[in-house]
Write a structure and sequence with these properties.
homodimer; Glutathione S-transferase Yfyf (Class Pi), Chain A, domain 2; 9 helices; transferase activity (chains A, B); GST_UstS-like_C (chains A, B); GST_Omega/HSP26 (chains A, B); Glutathione S-transferase-like protein (chains A, B)
């Protein structure tokens, strides 16, 4: 057991069923899709920097005050004594360290995948945040909840004002729908009608999309009106797409 | 001669040496890289819609008033009696119609390439426009110059105010440098130090970048201070990168 990969994730109040963080879901999906054994270590927000330093995972960016900024996901792989942070870097590491498992980022597509991460951030992710950060705050444990609220509100104002039910929230949903349609158009651009970004098989671009969409499913619930509606967008593309990920929604 | 592909491009006052339009350069580079014979038909801006309708090329978007919007590049291929507009669609057509020529968009990367087009538009292209639209206006023939000025100024104000020499233009250059560095970072993300987006060989993502960068070289001149400076950015990456395209800068 001590030799399996250790995967660091952020808990919710009900960690048994709900892994919620979209960025850590990208790594969880990566591990599950590759079939690699791992165990989850749950880390509250205020402890992320300390834990990353302890295992030797690099900061993923720099704070406005110039100090290193640590984020999850991170993994520690005892078999190679390697700590890695940032889901894209983790995907590249897993492809190299475990070449006999399904490939996430095929040779030659690393730069294209990196560019996709950026455009997905600038479009879909940006539109999901006002919808999803306020309800996410409600499912965090107290230490994370206080940290999450403080850091998010210092930039964008009171969480409860971001997307109150009614026309403002409807507008955010419509904005998200427009951005997701762009992704659907890219995926259809080869005219072959394949379900995934690179064709018939899941790769890291698909995992990025699924990681973010599953956030809504996990936090609002699989029966929620918003999730049910999202699955119908683009002629049901996203419902079918997310169905393919159900078998990888394992919280190991 | 009548059987070669006809390529529709926008002239400058000195068409012999200067094909300038970044979007049409994407198709010109595509044709030159594939080694496909073609002849250029030069179309002034006010004639683009008429010419596209005559050859049967589709509009590439919709104007704000709901009318179809026609743009170049477009090609007409007499051997298949096909007219295509939009450089990405043209690249996909050329790959299918001429499978024995170098591939622009490898199988499975069509959606990733489409996503790259979008992020390149949102980053580098957006930052090049204030730098390059005003000097471009100065090299157009009178009918295109009037059309270009009217359509651009109706949205963004007097062309001469966009990037006057001095601190405003310096700022636009710095903004462009920042965005190009992002592209360099994506290209370096596999850690292999290869010169192009997918490795050692030119593909359509590279042609997209080259098409836009060559705009500066053509309009400001290869000896201009701004072009000379751009080539030094990211440790000289863009100078080396554009050198690889010099043999495809043929105006056929």
């Amino acid at each position: 057991m001590s030799e399996v990969i250790i995967f660091y994730d952020i808990p919710s109040r009900d960690v048994k069923d709900v892994a919620w963080s979209p960025n850590t879901w990208k790594t969880r999906f990566s591990l599950n899709y590759k079939g690699l054994p791992y165990r989850t270590v749950w880390v509250e927000y205020p402890d992320i920097a300390r834990v990353c330093r302890e295992i030797g995972a690099e900061p993923t960016s720099t704070s406005e005050d110039g100090s290193p900024y640590y984020t999850l996901p991170a993994i520690y792989d005892p078999s190679t004594k390697t700590a890695i942070s940032e889901s894209g870097k983790i995907a590249r590491y897993l492809d190299k360290a475990y070449p006999d498992t399904p490939v996430l980022i095929p040779s030659g597509t690393c730069a294209l995948h990196a560019a996709f991460q950026e455009v997905f951030l600038m479009t879909v992710q940006r539109r999901m945040q006002p919808l999803m950060l306020p309800p996410t705050n409600n499912i965090l444990n107290p230490p994370s909840e206080a940290y999450f609220r403080r850091t998010r509100e210092s930039k964008f104002g009171k969480l409860e004002d971001w997307s109150p039910p009614g026309p403002i929230r409807e507008k955010h949903q419509e904005d998200l729908r427009v951005e997701l349609t762009k992704v659907a158009v890219w995926m259809a651009s080869d005219g072959e009608g394949k379900p995934f970004f690179m064709g018939d098989t899941i790769h890291y671009a698909d995992i990025t999309i699924a990681g973010w969409l599953v956030w809504m499913k996990k936090v609002l619930g699989p029966e929620s009106q918003e999730w049910t509606r999202l699955k119908t967008w683009d002629d049901g593309k996203w419902g079918t797409f997310m169905q393919a990920f159900e078998k990888y929604e394992i919280v190991g």
